[in-house]
């Protein structure tokens, strides 16, 4: 213990260097000092800590200075008047030291230590390293460790092969005094960082005595890429050693690392715990199909794998597993993963059953089994990065993992998902499950780019800033424009207003030429808009609205056919009657004069509330002589609305297959923004029901997907709506 009050002889001034914010390294000499001593900071014996003293003999010095020593001490307080003094407690007489007014830079301090300690320098440094590594690390302390290791570490071999694997780094090379198992390392990489190497060793004929090859995985390290490693330090049986990185080292692709680990395990040895770790690491995907090599009756195949940009991966395939050996199926790419057997929908695949029925290895297992070997699954938010392989990992009972590489295509959301409809029987419950669990979530998750105006052409005195304008949107289906333009021209309320005709770029040559001829013939002012990214009429309408600056826009789908003059004037007057804060829509009719749409209404209560069209299929006479009335949502096939409200609502949602739900979605967004929908029964417009899908059953499944998506987005809001 350091006495409370002690008479002290004049204290020597000693060299020191800071190590972090709270510690210093002090070097001095005395007659004798124990290995562990208390030290009092700033001359105050009440403020004591214990420190380790590293000593060496000074043969030429006087007895009072025969022992050199090095110790860590707390840093003195800069604001203390008596700072700069430390007191070392030792048996008999304490030792008081005065710190030099200016600290030495670390490199200069270590150079002075090397000169002072002489032949004892390696031993002293070795002890100092133990102290520094045992304490709480900080950048300055680690820098000191790095400089010390540069001075004392002996050559220990070379790292010749490296490769990244998940969160670890594979190393292979040769070394002296290196033992198999878990070895703590220090990695020089700009600074110094701790790590651990789980490694095995193997014999090499090209090395001298005492040297062996090694292979293993770096763990618990901050290194993210092998190229960051400059050298590695480890403590061997005879002190610290340095592993240099060979100048022409081999950098492995991550996919090849498991094979190198398997090779090392076959020819090398390691303790059981290390062997188990390395074997688990070696059971990773290496680019091969290993499912086909299994001894158990498990096989798998992929019909298609498509990356839907910004959304995820859609996979259609089959898994033959009659004995239920597979406990999990995971889709992986780099560090990303998705357990797909928790998400997929199983579908009947009799072709798979037939293919394996005659195989003696698998046929008996098929007896009395269902043929639901197929699966369809959407893995959300898993987008492989460039260069990263995509594969399935099958966890097999008693066999470990097996892998199936995928070669995915990239596709747009809507066309990719529409192809699934052709594989399903719309009358089956399986089709409904596939649509609800796979198709609808995939379409809703996709970030689909909006339609883009490529070019515009004006015919006549077109005024883009007119207070009212008509926007006509065409999809890819052939439309006869002559009758439409004739009806527009003979309507005195439509003839003077500017008209925007938006059409897909693929059909613009034909449509554009015909529209120019008709516009000039009838003296109409028309802006022709060429649009990219059109999937339906709603996309064309949106592009058309954004290609003008009308205050009020009348929307007319290419599927609509005008039935009477004066339709636009009546809709506009109803719109103005509500202060320009509504969506005014007419009655929509089928070609046989039955009702297609006569207002969308809220039916039911609470969670069961839905938006429905009550009069579909009724004769036109069923609605009588009703006047304009507010409804839950309008019909965007033909309507009048504020352009500013349309833009503020974000236009049409892109995450639907059909225009029906797109229009309903838009009208509800406008309603939430203060622009309710108004039905004007006296105005009647035909809408040609020629179908948006090539085959009826595909249309039915698309409508089911849209209704599922719509309910997920709007069910809660609708349950709380009034009306």
TrEMBL record:
InterPro entries: Nucleotide-diphossugar_trans. SUPFAM superfamilies: Nucleotide-diphospho-sugar transferases (SSF53448). It comes from the Bacteria. This is Glycosyltransferase 2-like domain-containing protein. It comes from Bosea vaviloviae.
């Amino acid at each position: 213990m350091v006495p409370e009050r002690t008479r002290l002889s004049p204290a020597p001034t000693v060299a020191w260097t800071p190590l972090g914010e709270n510690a210093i390294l002090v070097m001095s000499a005395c007659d004798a000092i124990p290995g562990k001593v208390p030290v009092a900071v700033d001359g105050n014996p009440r403020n004591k800590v214990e420190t380790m003293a590293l000593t060496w003999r000074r043969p030429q010095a006087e007895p009072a200075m025969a022992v050199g020593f090095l110790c860590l001490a707390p840093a003195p307080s800069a604001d203390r008047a008596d700072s700069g003094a430390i007191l070392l407690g030792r048996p008999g007489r304490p030792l008081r030291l005065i710190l030099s007014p200016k600290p030495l830079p670390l490199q200069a301090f270590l150079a002075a230590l090397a000169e002072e300690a002489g032949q004892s320098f390696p031993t002293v440094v070795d002890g100092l390293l133990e102290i520094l590594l045992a304490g709480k690390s900080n950048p300055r302390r680690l820098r000191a460790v790095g400089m010390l290791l540069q001075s004392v570490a002996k050559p220990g071999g070379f790292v010749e092969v490296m490769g990244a694997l998940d969160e670890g780094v594979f190393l292979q090379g040769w070394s002296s005094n290196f033992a198999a198992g878990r070895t703590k390392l220090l990695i020089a990489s700009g600074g110094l960082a701790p790590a651990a190497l789980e490694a095995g060793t193997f014999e090499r004929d090209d090395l001298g005595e005492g040297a062996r090859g090694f292979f293993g995985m770096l763990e618990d390290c901050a290194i993210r890429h092998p190229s960051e490693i400059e050298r590695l330090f480890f403590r061997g049986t005879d002190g610290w050693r340095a592993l240099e990185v060979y100048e022409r080292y081999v950098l492995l692709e991550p996919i090849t690392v498991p094979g190198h680990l398997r090779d090392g395990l076959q020819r090398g040895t390691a303790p059981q715990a290390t062997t188990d770790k390395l074997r688990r690491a070696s059971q990773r995907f290496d680019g091969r199909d290993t499912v086909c090599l299994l001894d158990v009756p498990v096989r798998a195949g992929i019909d298609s794998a498509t990356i839907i940009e910004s959304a995820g991966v859609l996979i259609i395939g089959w898994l033959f597993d009659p004995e239920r050996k597979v406990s999990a199926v995971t889709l992986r790419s780099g560090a990303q993963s998705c357990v797909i057997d928790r998400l997929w929908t199983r579908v009947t695949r009799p072709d798979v059953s037939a293919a394996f029925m005659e195989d003696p290895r698998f046929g008996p297992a098929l007896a009395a089994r269902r043929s639901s070997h197929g699966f369809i699954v959407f893995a959300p938010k898993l987008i492989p990065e460039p260069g990263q392989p995509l594969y399935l990992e099958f966890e097999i009972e008693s066999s470990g993992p097996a892998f199936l590489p995928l070669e995915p295509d990239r596709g747009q959301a809507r066309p990719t998902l529409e192809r699934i409809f052709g594989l399903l029987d719309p009358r089956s419950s399986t089709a409904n499950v596939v649509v609800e669990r796979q198709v609808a979530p995939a379409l809703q998750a996709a970030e689909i780019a909006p339609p883009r105006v490529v070019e515009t052409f004006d015919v006549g005195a077109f005024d883009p800033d007119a207070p009212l304008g008509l926007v006509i949107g065409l999809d890819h289906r052939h439309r006869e424009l002559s009758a439409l333009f004739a009806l527009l021209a003979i309507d005195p309320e439509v003839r003077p207003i500017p008209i925007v005709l938006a059409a897909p770029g693929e059909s613009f040559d034909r449509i554009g030429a015909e529209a120019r001829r008709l516009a000039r013939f009838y003296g109409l002012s028309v802006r022709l808009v060429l649009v990219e990214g059109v999937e339906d009429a709603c996309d064309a309408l949106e592009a058309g609205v954004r290609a003008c600056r009308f205050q009020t826009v009348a929307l007319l789908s290419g599927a609509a056919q005008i039935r009477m003059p004066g339709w636009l004037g009546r809709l506009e007057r109803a719109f103005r009657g509500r202060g320009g804060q509504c969506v005014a829509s007419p009655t929509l009719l089928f070609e046989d004069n039955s009702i297609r749409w006569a207002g969308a209404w809220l039916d039911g209560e609470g969670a069961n509330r839905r938006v429905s069209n009550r009069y579909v299929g009724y004769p036109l006479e069923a609605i009588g002589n009703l006047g304009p009335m507010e409804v839950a949502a309008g019909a965007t096939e033909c309507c009048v609305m504020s352009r500013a409200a349309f833009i503020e609502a974000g236009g049409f949602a892109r995450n639907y297959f059909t225009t029906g739900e797109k229009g309903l979605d838009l009208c509800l967004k406008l309603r939430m923004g203060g622009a309710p929908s108004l039905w004007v029964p006296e105005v009647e417009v035909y809408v040609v029901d020629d179908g948006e899908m090539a085959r009826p059953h595909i249309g039915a499944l698309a409508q089911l997907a849209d209704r599922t998506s719509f309910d997920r987005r709007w069910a809660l809001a609708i349950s709380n709506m009034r009306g």
